[in-house]
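Sample intake sheet
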Amino acid sequence: MSLTVLTGVIYPAAVTLVAQVFFPHQANGSIIKDGDVAIGSELIGQSFTRPEYFWSRLSATSTEPYNAAASSGSNYGPMNPALLKLARKRISHLSGSVDKHVAIPVDLVTSSASGLDPHITPAAAEYQVARVAAARSISEDRVRDLMHASTEGRTLGVLGEPRVNVLKVNLALDREVKGL
């Protein structure tokens, strides 16, 4: 009984208290807001399909794109024909929007392990700069500046790779157009 109270009540309450006091933004889902309106989470990808937005990685969630309740990988191995079919479809879609002589970054044609990744590589973002700039009628340099401002470095300076948060860069682009 005492172990149940310790591990089932006291420990979770202590962890929640510490998280709320020292890391309230993260403890509450890393929600990005526009005023009082929740736009999305920094941690969950969203589907962007219009040409004036940077496009996210593919979502592997089964019911609807980026549904955190349905998080799972596709479980497609590299030799699975279904994975190849999905990748070819995405390559065909992407090839129509940019220079066909530029290699498409792999993270634009595959999903992440969870299917919810909110980030793309800087190379995947750079691949999309010309399309986004043309669709918004702004310079490619300005789009790049906003992309770089939304690029996160390695965690703790050594873990992972630099990455661009797609929701943040798209919100920055919207603010740029509105002149905010």
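Comment: Residues 43-178 form one domain. The first strand starts at residue 31 and ends at 34.
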